[in-house]
Design a protein that fits this description.
This protein is mostly helical and about 270 residues long. It has two domains: about 50 residues, no CATH class; about 210 residues, MetI-like (MetI-like fold, Orthogonal Bundle). α3 crosses α13, α7 runs parallel beside α11 and α8 runs antiparallel to α11. Strands 1-2 form a two-stranded antiparallel ribbon. Helix content is about 80%, strand content about 0%. The longest helix is centred in the first third of the chain and has 34 residues. The N and C termini lie far apart (about 50 Å).
């Protein structure tokens, strides 16, 4: 250890130590989850499984209810993302382009769903949904997810729209383009990176939302996160690890495909006031 210390130098030594600690803390749980998902025989507190296999993968993928929850989550995330784009993009554009009294307050109001404990908000929504017969419905779960993602779908695109020079829109209108054509051919393409980032946050947030889906959706709507609670309580740790890996796959695919949009610059522009 001392020899390594002198070979690397004082500063480099501590840099490597800090880097090793970061890798252990950040990637350790992920590696453990992947290892357990392919475990055949595992008993806590063993560090690694005694045998490996696809036993629990076969169990998960052969269970009709669990497979149905995977399909349900994917459909739900797509619907929530599409509806959020439809509802929030006009609001984001209006906030970015029009100066009106209380504009900043309106933008800050979208933070309210993230400023309070989520379970309290879900409980209040459940009371209202019970009265209008939306408990246990797909529509009710969609509305819960949209409420959760409105901040991302308004803040990030509004920042991107604000960074589009208004002179570019005016030039398009001067040559005869209408407001709608100007928006779809000039404004939206230039703001596309921010819209992509917001859509990714919305899709992934919908895929991972558990408490609201559990409270509002059951017993009729079963999503992957809500089913994961039951798997963890009823089956071995290895079964929960398999389902968690399956839940992680769509996120990894989307992050790889759209990684060029997930830069600090793109996200910081979207959060500007």
């Amino acid at each position: 250890m001392k020899r390594l210390y002198y070979l690397l130098g004082k500063n480099k030594f501590w840099e490597y130590i800090l880097f090793a600690v970061f890798i252990l803390v950040f990637y350790g749980p992920l590696v453990n989850m992947l290892t357990l998902s392919f475990a055949g025989k595992y008993n806590y507190p063993d560090v690694v499984p005694k045998t490996y296999g696809l036993k629990w993968w076969q169990f998960i993928l052969s269970n009709k209810n669990l497979v149905s929850s995977i399909t349900q989550s994917l459909i739900l995330a797509i619907v929530v993302t599409a509806l959020s784009l439809l509802i929030c993009l006009p609001a984001a554009y209006a906030i970015a382009r029009f100066q009106f009294k209380g504009r900043t307050l309106v933008r800050l109001s979208f933070l309210l769903t993230n400023a309070f404990p989520k379970m309290g908000i879900y409980t209040a929504m459940a009371v209202v949904f019970y009265k209008i017969h939306l408990m246990g419905t797909f529509t009710g779960v969609v509305l819960v997810h949209i409420v959760n993602t409105m901040m991302f779908m308004v803040w990030i695109p509004s920042g991107s729209f604000a960074n589009v020079h208004i002179q570019q829109e005016e030039s398009a209108r001067d040559v005869g383009a209408g407001p709608i054509r100007t928006f779809f051919h000039i404004t939206m393409p230039l703001a596309w990176p921010g819209i992509i980032v917001a859509s990714l946050y919305t899709f992934l947030g919908s895929m991972e939302e558990a408490q609201g889906s559990l409270l509002i959706g059951l017993p009729n709507v079963h999503t992957m996160p809500s089913e994961l609670y039951g798997i963890i309580m009823s089956y071995a740790d290895t079964a929960g690890s398999v389902f968690a890996v399956i839940l992680l796959i769509p996120a990894l695919i989307l992050l790889i495909v759209f990684r060029k949009y997930l830069s600090g610059e793109a996200m910081s522009k979207g959060f500007r006031m």
